[in-house]
Amino acid sequence: MNEELDSQLSAMFDDELPHEECELLARRLSRDEGLKARWGRYAVVGAVIRAERGVRLNAPLAGRVSAAIRTEPELERAVPAVAARARLGWWQPALGGALAAGVAAVSILWLRGQVPLTTVPVTAQRAPQALGNDPNPYVTPRLVAAHSSPVPSTQLANYVVAHSMVSSPMARGNLLSAFITSESSAPEPVKTDLAGNAK
Amino acid sequence: MRSSEGLIAFALGCLVAGSAVAEEPAQWLERMNQALNSRNYDGTFSHWHGGQVEMLRIIHRMQDGNVSERLASLDGSGREFIRSGATLSCYLPDKRTVVVEQRPAQEPLVGFPAVNQQTAEFYDIREVARTRFNRRDTHVITVTPRDAYRYGYRLWIDDSTAMPLKTQLCDSHGQVIEQIVFASLTVSSHIPDAAFKPEVSTEGFQWVREVHPAQLAPAPDSPAWSAMRLPPGFHMTVRQAQTLPGSSQPVDHLVFSDGVAFVSVFVEHREVSLAPGGAAPQPASATDDASEAAAVGSSSAFSTVVDGHRVTAVGEVPPETVQFIATQVKATGTAGAVHGRP
Predict the structure, then answer these.
(1) d(CA B118, nearest CA chain A) in Å
(2) Residue B20 backbone phi and psi in degrees, to 5
(3) Range of the domain at A19
(4) How many CB pairs under 8 A join A and B?
(5) Angle (deg, nearest 10), helices A101-118 and A62-70
(6) CB 3.0-4.6 Å disulfide test: which of A25, A148, B33, B319 passes with B111?
(7) Measured distance CA(B67)–CA(B101) in Å, rounded
(8) A100: nearest CA in chain B?
(9) Which of A58, A80, A99 is the last residue of a domain?
(10) Residues A90, A136: one domain?
């Protein structure tokens, strides 16, 4: 059974599972935590094998998010709204409100925990020379790994959030989804179902 | 949904009358954007990235020209974004905090960039199949980059409603980087106000409200930064100064786009650093090897130092692209703002 499931998960991940089976497996994934975790592990292994960048393991982010919260005076103190405005000014999108600053504000707390996990140092490179004079410019320069890590992760997170404000709606949506599903160690809030009934 | 569109209600598995009229793949993308932003819908979808899959719920309503939207995690944190007109609230029950701010009501939170002739020069947009997905007839539209400087998309667009039932972000080899799949989707004529209430009680929560400060313009005597060369199809769409957290100096923010992909370049003056052993401060060298690459979600970042300035490129593009753009940015004169929405 496990082998069959593994085979289905593999095919689903590679988008080779027939749609009917994909539908059934997706439904099972949505309600089977064990299977979902297994798919996650499979996907991570696959990503590592393919040497993909940005593989996010299942490490709890809550500690880092909490630490970020504690370093944010804007969110640490229960400040009156008027007083908060001045200090929160840097969350404002630069381009006439391309994205909610609130999104940026909360996303940055998540990102500050995320960035160190995936930072990959590389060597400094001169600008690739091939592009400008190349009659066939559809060649990308090779990324060379090496050393050094000079950019504070907080600063990088600031850049990513600021970029999301000017990027495509799809990219913004992905950032929202990524943030909203990041882990938390805080006590579980009171849960209700979608009809408002306590669970 | 406008009444002229008829009262259409369905759940997955229920066919809907009124087939689409769009024929061209680009038209399907346009119809999809219209559907995402004009229809009333309530759906549950999985979001896969980096080996993790999470379930979320999205509810969207357009009523009398006002948009309401709710995005909620179904898996754990209880976090929610709820948008009502120009107000966007982020509920963080795990932090007992609500962040509220004003934003343009017409700004879509979801959708695909507009496709035009220029876009088609660098992306191959085609319908590759018509298939059944989740028991619905879908058009499989691929947006495939013609080179390795950008990512591509695969979209399964519902024939009847033009809603994207499945979306994949892919690298130049077709490998899936990110995937969103609707497990259930209901389009209805009416969604009650109660659907846009947060799931959690906010009693005792800290409320943080934010207002928009004025935009910054680059100082007239500051260096004007631009890219000497760019990947094919990319051009500068925005040049703006803004203040980022932790910095007292405005940062120059340049945006380059090919119409689908966006890359931001941030230029900050680099502070002098202490020499080893606590010697006198040394100015940052004109060029050094302090370069770094990073991946954040589906975004790539590359940072380097140019003429004593930290230059960082960020975008939903391959790592090689942000590296190329970052290393091409140079000071070319004095500042003059270029404003424009990408």
Answers:
(1) 16
(2) -70, 155
(3) 1-58
(4) 377
(5) 120
(6) B33
(7) 15
(8) B103
(9) A58
(10) yes
For B223-268, how does the pLDDT look when each residue is reduced to its tens digit (9 = 90+)? 789 999 999 999 999 888 887 655 667 889 999 999 899 999 999 8
Confirm whether A108 is domain-assigned: yes
Complete DSSP assignment for A11-75:
HHHTT-S-HHHHHHHHHHHHH-HHHHHHHHHHHHHHHHHTT-S--------HHHHHHHHHT-HHH
Contacts of B178 in chain A (CB under 8 A): 174
CATH class (in words) of the domain with range B223-334: alpha beta
What's the CA gap between B50 and A57, in Å, rounded?
8
Q: How many domains does chain A have?
A: 2
ipTM associated with this complex: 0.74
Q: CA angle, corner B82, sides to B207 and A191, nearest 5?
A: 80
Residue among A120, A111, A101 nearest A156 (CA): A111
- Quote the pLDDT of residue A151: 55
Nearest to A30 among B46, B178, B324 (CB): B46
**Tens-digit pLDDT profile for residues A64-79:** 323 333 333 332 332 2
User: Same structural domain for residues A40 and A124?
Assistant: no
Nearest to A50 among B75, B175, B194 (CB): B175
Closest CA in chain B for residue A171: B316
Same domain, A66 and A162: yes
On whether any CB of chain B is under 8 Å from the CB of A151, the answer is yes
In a domain, A192, yes or no: no
Distance (Å) from the C-alpha of residue B6 to the closest C-alpha of chain A?
27
Tell me where in chain B the CATH 2.50.20.10 domain(s) lie.
3-209
User: Pick from B94, B99, B324: which is nearest to A128 by CB?
Assistant: B324
Q: What tokens appear for B22 in the block?
A: 């769009």
Superfamily of domain B3-209: Lipoprotein localisation LolA/LolB/LppX (2.50.20.10)
A89 and A32, same structural domain? no
